[in-house]
Design brief:
3-stranded antiparallel beta sheet, Glycosyltransferase, mainly alpha
Length: 369
C-alpha cells in the first residue's frame, strides 16, 4: 500500500544496555494521565497561542494539515483534541471529535479510524488506519472525560484501545510492537515500525484505564526500541525501522532522523510523567541533547540527518522542531525552557505549530513531577 503521507511528511553516546522495567504491568493511578497543566495555560499569552492555532488549522472540527495539501488525518484530529483539552476548550474538543467520528469512523469494520481524508474529494481516500492517530484520539478522550466528567468518552477511548490491541500489536523479541497500521507494515518476522508512534504518556493512560498488561509491556518495548534503533555517528533514531536483528533503517524509506523521529525525544521527555520510567527516559534523551547542543551559536539546526552518512539537510528545523529541541535539552526546567521557545504565528504550518504547542505542553506536564 502507499505509505501514509502524514507519516512521510516533507519539510515544514553509547547505547544503554537493555533493561526490563518493573511494575508496569500493574495498573497505574489515574493521576498519571489526567493532565496537570497550570491554570496559566488558559490565560493571557498562552490562550492567545491556542486561539491563533485554532483559527489557522481548525475548521468546523476538521484539523487541516496546511503543509500536506490541506488534508486531514487521524493524527491531526488527535493532536487537535489533546490541545483543546489542555486549553479547556470543550466546544472545540467536541467539534473535533464529532468530525472525526463522522468523517473517519465506522468505515473499517475493526473499530479503528480511517487515517486520511482529502478536501478535494470530500471523502476518505485511504481507509487504512494510522495507529498513532487512534492512540492520540483515545488519549485525548480519556483526558477530556477526566476534565469534563464525560463517561461516554472514556468508553469510546477504551473501544479504540481495544481495537488497537486487536489489530496492530504483534509479538517481537523486544516485546509487543505497535505496527503503524493494520495493512502494509507486517513483513512477517521483520515488520516495519515507526518509533515515533510510541506516545509514552498515552500508553501510560491506556494502562491506567484498562489495567491490561499489554500497555505496560508496550512502554517497555518502546523504550527498548528507542534505545536499540539508534544509528550512525550521532546515535539518532531513524524515522522508519525494520525489526531485523540487529535493527536497521527500513528499506524503502530514507534512512533519516527527520520529520517523524523528531517526535521520539518529545514523547520520551513527556514520558517523565511516568515515575517508573522517568530516570530511563532522561538517560535516553542524552544523544538528542548532545546532537542539538552541537549547533549552539549557529543560525539554524538541520531538520533532517541521514543516519547512515551523517549528512544534513539544507533546510532547518521549523519553529516546532526547535521547540522540541528545547524541551528535550531542558526537560524538567520549564520556566527556563519556555522562555527560549518561539510562539505560534501565521507563518507556521500545521505540523510546526502542533509540535510547538505539544512541546510546551509536554514540558509543563513533565516538569511538575
Amino acid at each position: 500500500m502507499a505509505m501514509p503521507d502524514a507519516l512521510q511528511r516533507p519539510p515544514g553516546g553509547p547505547r544503554l544496555g537493555r533493561r526490563r522495567l518493573l511494575g508496569l504491568g500493574a495498573a497505574l493511578p489515574a493521576a498519571f494521565f489526567t493532565g496537570r497543566v497550570p491554570a496559566a495555560l488558559t490565560e493571557g499569552l498562552w490562550m492567545s497561542e491556542w486561539l491563533m492555532y485554532r483559527s489557522l488549522f481548525v475548521s468546523d472540527g476538521r484539523v487541516v494539515d496546511t503543509g500536506n495539501g490541506g488534508i486531514s488525518h487521524s493524527e491531526g484530529q488527535g493532536y487537535g483534541m489533546l490541545l483543546a483539552e489542555a486549553f479547556d476548550d470543550r466546544p472545540t474538543f467536541e467539534a473535533i471529535w464529532t468530525w472525526t467520528q463522522e468523517a473517519l469512523g465506522g468505515v473499517r469494520g475493526d473499530g479503528l479510524l480511517a487515517w486520511k481524508w482529502e478536501p478535494e474529494e470530500g471523502r476518505i481516500t485511504d481507509p487504512n488506519a494510522a495507529s498513532d492517530g487512534d492512540l492520540l484520539v483515545a488519549w485525548a478522550l480519556l483526558r477530556g472525560a477526566s476534565r469534563w466528567g464525560e463517561p461516554g468518552w472514556r468508553s469510546e477511548a477504551v473501544d479504540l484501545l481495544t481495537a488497537l490491541e486487536r489489530s496492530v500489536v504483534v509479538p517481537h523479541r523486544l516485546g509487543p510492537m505497535l505496527l503503524p497500521g493494520p495493512v502494509g507494515f507486517d513483513g512477517g518476522a521483520e515488520p516495519v515500525v515507526n518509533p515515533s508512534y510510541w506516545v509514552f504518556p498515552a500508553l501510560s493512560a491506556a494502562l491506567a484505564e484498562t489495567g491490561r498488561r499489554v500497555w505496560g509491556d508496550l512502554i517497555d518495548s518502546g523504550l527498548s526500541l528507542c534505545r536499540e534503533a539508534r544509528f550512525g555517528a550521532f546515535d539518532l533514531t531513524a524515522d522508519w525501522v525494520l525489526l531485523s536483528d540487529p535493527l536497521q533503517p527500513a528499506p524503502g524509506f530514507e534512512p533519516v532522523f527527520g520529520f517523524n523521529a523528531v517526535r521520539v525525544p518529545l514523547y520520551l521527555a513527556w514520558g517523565r510523567t511516568i515515575p517508573a520510567v522517568a530516570a530511563e527516559v532522561d538517560d535516553q534523551l542524552a544523544p538528542y541533547r548532545d546532537f542539538w547542543a552541537g549547533f549552539d551559536g549557529r543560525p539554524a539546526i538541520p531538520a533532517v540527518v541521514n543516519v547512515e552518512t551523517g549528512t544534513f539537510s539544507d533546510y532547518a528545523l521549523s519553529s516546532g522542531g526547535r521547540a522540541v529541541a528545547v524541551a528535550t535539552r531542558f526537560a524538567g526546567r520549564s520556566e527556563h525552557a519556555l522562555a527560549m521557545m518561539p510562539r505560534v504565528s501565521p507563518a507556521d504550518d500545521y505540523y510546526a505549530a502542533t509540535l510547538l504547542l505539544l512541546a510546551k505542553l509536554a514540558l509543563l506536564e513533565a516538569s511538575e513531577i
